[in-house]
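Sample pair:
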Amino acid sequence: MLLPSPPLTAGPTQPSTPARLDASCLHVTRTDHPSAIPPAHDLAFGKHVTDHMLQIEWTETYGWHQPRILPYQDIRLDPTASVFHYGFECFEGMKAYRDARGRLRFFRPDMNLDRFSKSAVRIALPSLDGAELLKLIAEFVKVDERFVLAQPGYSLYLRPVLVGTSQGLGVTAPTSALLYVIASPVGAYYSTGFNPISLEATSSRHATRAWPGGAGNQKVGGNYAPSIAPEKAAKSRGFHQCLWLFGDDDAITEAGTMNLFIALKVQGHDRRELVTPPLDGTILPGVTRDCVLRLARERLVPRGWRISERKICMAELSEASKSGKLVEVFGSGTAAVVSPIKAIKWREQLIECGLLPHQNAGKIATWMKDWIESRQYGIEEHEWSVAVDHVSR
């Protein structure tokens, strides 16, 4: 069992200003009992973990303590730790890939770690130096690189987590915290193929994922737990996930834990529009969302498409489906890249989302998946793909 060490009062002298995160101080302890690599067919999302973890403590008086890579193990915290009572927890989801030449790669890690720091600050946890943390994560990936399979569709999912560890029941900003990173080898998200899902639209009159002024645009645990009961209910009725709506006009926000994209024919014009709800503070600024938007502006705009970040409500979506103007709908996220959507239940309607009976995915969703994965695996050399070996400490 791992108990976070106390502030370094008896060891190193307390710095005059809090110590910054410093990757050059990394200490590595390798496991004496390496585990077997799970078979490729068994790599369901989050089922397995690698042999090690990265851990860094923070205290208000000292700052960031020495980073350590340790054998994977339990974490012990005091029962009054602030994370247990008041939800001082944020996390990220990112991946490392192995390209055709065997090199390890990150994909847009700067965006993930910038969002991680913003999430931390939003809930009164310490801000993070993303560049230094990336150096540490790179070393962590190198230690456990044997878990990154050299097959298309496989990757190493990385989960940085920051939790408040202060002892006591006072409702106040944590004075100590623990940052750790664990890794899980994962296979293709679609084990049986690139199949569409169905959604049940959930009105904010019944359940709300996020609200103006809240933390819906941050990756904090408090955004996720309250969404599970409504999603469980939707699944009991035969749907895969909830489509989260907000307001009396049923404005579309997110699909499960994904950002949403809607392709429409533009009325009166021989043009099409790709729509996603705007980042109004209730929606997570997804890394894959940004990839889809940038690729759409790069490759669809020259084909006559209009790319819009605008409010779109269920009434517009329903009318587009009835009139034949709805081309396709898909979600985007780190785990699946893109997820085609076949139908959405809204009130008493089942809205068909443009797919023909024999189609698993629309043209735009398929293009986006292929374009993004081409950059993730280094097939197309691009600045979004960062070689792990190029991240040095």
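The first helix runs from residue 82 to 86.
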